[in-house]
């Protein structure tokens, strides 16, 4: 018995083609979606915070010490110099974005990733960091420390 166009065979063939087509489309999507998510980074951007009040009292920050805090969505470092001055910088190393830390033995800021050194003005003084740390403004208001971006 011969099948004619539009007969039961054509319907079965159409169904099989539809299944194969949707499977191929699903496969292509399953490859393209992660690929595009990888190639197009999410929009996090720079921190929008203009200032932050730290949960630390000025009297609790000892001379020749530093501590990391969050400035918006990025790490920052508050430093009390050996002379007693409070300073704050971005804690994101200008080399490859590791988080820097304060070295009490050296009395300056240090990046453990590739041995980068920054002085107490945030200037890169040794190692691979190509530029200084971004400096923030520190204001002490009573028992509060307020750190803000410069003008
Ligand atoms: S990331 Fe800091 S020195 Fe390389």
Describe the structure using short key phrases.
151 residues, alpha+beta, Rieske Iron-sulfur Protein, 2 domains, six-stranded antiparallel sheet, four-stranded antiparallel sheet, 21% helix, elongated, binds FE2/S2 (inorganic) cluster
Number of strands: 10
By CATH reckoning, the class of the largest domain would read: Mainly Beta
Q: What gyration radius follows from the Cα positions, in whole Å?
A: 29 Å
What would you call the shape?
elongated
- What's the CATH H-level superfamily name of the largest domain? Rieske [2Fe-2S] iron-sulphur domain
CATH architect. name of the largest domain: 3-layer Sandwich
> How many helices?
1
Describe how the helices and strands are arranged.
Blueprint: H1 8-39, E1 51-53, E2 65-71, E3 74-80, E4 86-90, E5 101-103, E6 108-111, E7 116-118, E8 124-126, E9 135-141, E10 144-149
Antiparallel strand pairs: 1-10, 2-3, 3-4, 4-9, 5-6, 6-7, 7-8, 9-10
The structure holds FE2/S2 (inorganic) cluster.
Residues 93, 95-96, 98, 111, 113-114, 116, 127-129 line the site of FE2/S2 (inorganic) cluster.
Please provide a written account of the structure:
This protein starts with 7 loop residues before the first helix and ends with a strand. It has 2 domains: 1-42; 51-149, Rieske Iron-sulfur Protein (3-layer Sandwich), CATH 2.102.10. Strands 1-10-9-4-3-2 form a 6-stranded antiparallel sheet, with no helix packed on it. The protein has a 4-stranded antiparallel sheet with strand order 5-6-7-8, with no helix packed on it. Helices cover 21% and strands 32% of the residues. It has one helix spanning 8-39; strands at residues 51-53, 65-71, 74-80, 86-90, 101-103, 108-111, 116-118, 124-126, 135-141, 144-149. A hairpin with a 5-residue loop joins strand 7 (116-118) and strand 8 (124-126). The chain contains 1 helix and 10 strands; from the N terminus they run H-E-E-E-E-E-E-E-E-E-E. With 151 residues, it is of the alpha+beta class. It binds FE2/S2 (inorganic) cluster. FE2/S2 (inorganic) cluster is lined by residues 93, 95-96, 98, 111, 113-114, 116, 127-129.
């Amino acid at each position: 018995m011969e099948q004619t166009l539009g007969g039961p065979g054509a319907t079965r063939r159409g169904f099989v083609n539809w299944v194969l087509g949707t499977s191929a489309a699903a496969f292509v999507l399953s490859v393209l979606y992660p690929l595009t998510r990888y190639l197009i980074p999410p929009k996090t951007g720079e921190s929008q915070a203009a200032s932050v009040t730290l949960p630390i009292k000025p009297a609790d920050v000892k001379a020749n010490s530093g501590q990391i805090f969050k400035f918006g969505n990025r790490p920052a470092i508050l430093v009390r110099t050996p002379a007693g001055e409070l300073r704050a910088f971005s804690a994101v190393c200008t080399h490859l974005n590791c988080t820097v830390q304060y070295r009490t033995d050296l009395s300056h800021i240090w990046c453990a990733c590739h041995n980068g050194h920054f002085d107490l003005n945030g200037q890169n003084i040794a190692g691979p960091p190509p530029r200084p740390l971004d400096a923030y403004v520190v204001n002490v208001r009573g028992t509060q420390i307020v750190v803000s971006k410069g003008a």
